[in-house]
Design a protein that fits this description.
Length: about 250
């Protein structure tokens, strides 16, 4: 995992800080997932994705049932420790840094505030797909992919499931599911998750030609305006399409 970090780092897009971070996550299956940080010029800094979040999001989207370890090029910040706690409550996940001794997350985040403090028995993993029906017809593959991503999202604190699909110039699709956090702020928005999926293939953000957000009708929060703003900052010519859905019991 440590040897893969320089490769993970090449996926970084850090035009604001110039500080590239790479991360490698090992899922319960033993598969490794590479991620890097993403910064969006013109947007508030909260639109940023950290490398650990990126690698964990990719592992999540690949249906990993748990996370065993994470390696990073820089010590995980407090925000990432909180994000990882949601994916691996209890702090057993191992954290590797080059030249340092291996530690468990619970050593880096003692007395953690996590899902159990809000009455949840488990965190974001394993994925628990929800059933969502759109209020309108599914009109195209991008919308269908966004719906599938929304069904894969984790939103136990708001019920505001959401997913984004983006299409690029060669027609390929990349999806991102919302991953909520007990501490709210470290939640990963679905658009950022989709951007990470795209960047992890080596493609460029300038290749985005279409984007669809699926979220819940009448939910207590919405991703719409933040997604529109971030998309506009990256691709002013692409207009976000939004479709609303309702949960099916
Ligand atoms: Zn971080």
């Amino acid at each position: 995992m440590l040897e893969l970090l320089p490769l993970a780092q090449t996926f970084a897009r850090a035009p604001i800080s110039g500080f590239s971070v790479g991360a490698v996550v090992r899922g319960a299956s033993g598969a490794l997932y590479l991620g890097a940080n993403l910064e969006i010029p013109g947007q508030p800094l909260y639109a940023t994705v950290h490398a650990e979040q990126a690698a964990a999001s990719i592992a999540y989207m690949h249906g990993e049932s748990g996370m065993e370890a994470v390696a990073t090029t820089a010590a995980p910040c407090g925000y990432c420790r909180q994000f990882l706690e949601e994916l691996a409550p209890g702090g057993e996940i191992r954290v590797l840094l080059a030249g340092r001794r291996l530690v468990r997350l619970q050593w880096l985040l003692p007395d953690a505030f996590g899902p159990r403090d809000l009455g949840r028995k488990q965190g974001a993993l394993p994925m628990n797909r929800v059933k969502i029906a759109l209020l309108t017809e599914v009109t195209d593959p991008v919308m269908a992919a966004a719906l599938s991503a929304a069904c894969a999202s984790y939103a136990p604190y708001t019920g505001a499931h959401s997913g984004v699909a983006i299409q690029v110039t060669d027609g390929s699709l990349y999806t991102g599911a919302y991953i909520e956090n007990a501490a709210f702020n470290p939640s990963l928005p679905p658009f950022q998750a989709a951007l990470i999926s795209l960047l992890s293939t080596g493609l460029h953000l300038e290749e985005i030609t279409d984007a669809v957000l699926v979220e819940m009708d009448g939910a207590v929060i919405s991703q719409k305006s933040a997604t529109e703003d971030a998309l506009f900052a990256l691709r002013p010519s692409v207009r976000l399409r939004t479709a609303l859905g309702r949960g099916i019991v």
